[in-house]
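Subject: mismatched residue count in predicted assembly?

I count 696 residues in my input, but I want to confirm that the predicted structure covers every chain. Input:
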Amino acid sequence: MAVSDRATGGVSHIGQDLGLTDDDLREMYRLVALARGVDERMWVLNRAGRIPFVISGQGHEGAQVGVTWALERGKDWIAPFYRSIATCLTFGMSARDMMTAQYATAGDPSSGGRQMPGHYGHPDHNLLSVSSPVATQILHAVGIALAAKIRRTGQVAATFMGEGSSNQGDVHEGLNFAAVHKLPFILVVENNGYAISVPTSAQLATENVADRAPAYGIPGIVVDGADVLACYAAAREAVERARRGEGPTLIEAKVGRLTAHSSDDQQTKYRSEEELAALRAADPLPRFREQLRAAGVLDDAAEADISARIKAEVDDATTYAEGEREPDPRTATRWVFAEDWPGERPPRDWAEETGQYDRLAGDGSEAAD
Amino acid sequence: MPTKTFIEAIREAMREEMARDETVIVLGEDVGRKGGVFLATDGLWDEFGPDRVIDTPLTESMIVGASIGAAVNGLRPIPEIQFADFIFPAFNQLLSEAARLRYRSNNAFGCPMTVRAPFGGGVHGALYHSQSVEAFFAHIPGLKIVVPSTPHDAKGLLRTAVRDDDPVLFFEHKKLYRSVRGDVPDGEYTVPFGKAQVTRPGSQLTVLAYGLMAHYALEAADRVAADDISVEVVDVRSLRPLDKETILGSVRKTGKALVVYEDNRFGGYGAELCATIAEEAFDYLDGPVMRVAGPDVPGVPYNHVLEDWFMVNPDKIEAAIRSLAAY
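Triage response: the counts match. Full output below for your records.
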């Protein structure tokens, strides 16, 4: 996805071997920082009572941007999960797209306000809609990869999940099938050490999720999830393998979860202050920033410019989402099927029959077309 | 018009749809080289190759889940669950994913997929090769459920299913596979969803049934005709979407309704038919809406005496018809 023109941009020593220009690196940094900016704003809005629920990706952004950068936007596919804010931004969704999902507005491209925040998706960017049962999406990504192989499209499909999800049976079924058929598929496990409150020691008998990969006959790579460029390098190799027809790869990025599981979780009940302080010291955002500064890719002016643009973008997204319409309850029976309840009447609408629409919040202007 | 068996009609529908549309694939356990344990996919592997007729590992959740993904990326999969009894590892994929994908994404994504599964008892299949599972799935908005009873409908409905843009569960009563033969027209006909079929006109009582029970209902109706009891039989065949118009039209005409289903009685699909009739045709009823259904034990027992005890048959239906007609 290295889109910048190398003739006009510099190439630093840290980007050279990876084929990344300085512009690429600055854009990757911007995405990590933008994801953090969107995420921090979500928590502010939650505390202010503007949005009822937040599920966060803080601490995961470096791994998400690094891995996602290796995939081709508009061609490859991603089945994301509920912490995939940076992944979705890197793959083409905007800050407005993410913020309308927090507010569950009529124009929210992920679900039109039907799903909880965190359940992102966008057909224009090949980002498959997220659901809440964990790990189900691995099979969808495997199926997308199967279709890519049968149709010879050259696409790669990746899915992202936490290490908690990696214990589900669907992961076994999906990895096994993808490996048997050498599908162009990548499983990315963002191991943050906790399945809500349960530590990895109570989830895994092995040290790494990636240790399971050899049992499927595929490579399992463990990578420092706070090292954006290491994540990119691992993903680039996996993508190349997949495109060569050599089959799937499991990438496990060790990350830290900087926030509680969600806005409804009190993590100090099961995590110490010392542990949280240590996590913040390994935050991928300042680490990537220092890495780029040391390599001469980022200076004060560039950093200030990026920060200002992100603040403006997050402000704009918040204002935009605040001003968006609520979904019209009269549209709630739509899209059960591609056509309106074929051969059968739509479900009985008690709101209509009892005059509830006068009371419901929708402004009624979004007439069913 | 050529006559074919039920399973020949199903096989032909898949073969012709695969020939017509290269995005149609078949996947499941033993569907390839062996051609399926019932031979429903026999010959497809030779004709279309292992890319489009895929022998999967024993992984029902994957069979359905990967079909969802393949559908998202441009294919029209026909996953086969070897026996409907084994569909439950895929229940989460059907309920939480396939049925909800379009609704939860506000029509951004859809899932054109036809899950085929043999169901039903009376074949010495015992608890785990006899089950009727339609009630679990008919409860879920976002899934379409069809249960054909004739070779004609099997082929026409399967064509419609493959061409549909939403997930369809296609349940085939395995006792019909080779025991039923019927006219199947040449050429590309389809049978639409949401249309029940009056298979025997009558005036005094309506029997609603589907699958094997649609045949048993006709047999019972024949028997009581000798005693001047005129029974109308409606083959529901499209469980969801449901053709309320034909069903309620028939009940309003006859004034009596008997609902027959092979599944356990309590909370079965037929209970929804009874409720619909009670709500929407109450003023026309001359007797209680009655049911003949399987007993409420956890499965169909194996020994033939026990299996006979379990199964709804023409005798049981006949007795219920006589009892309801006497009202």
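Residues 1-7, 364-369 of chain A have pLDDT under 50 and may be disordered. Marking this ticket as 'not a bug'.
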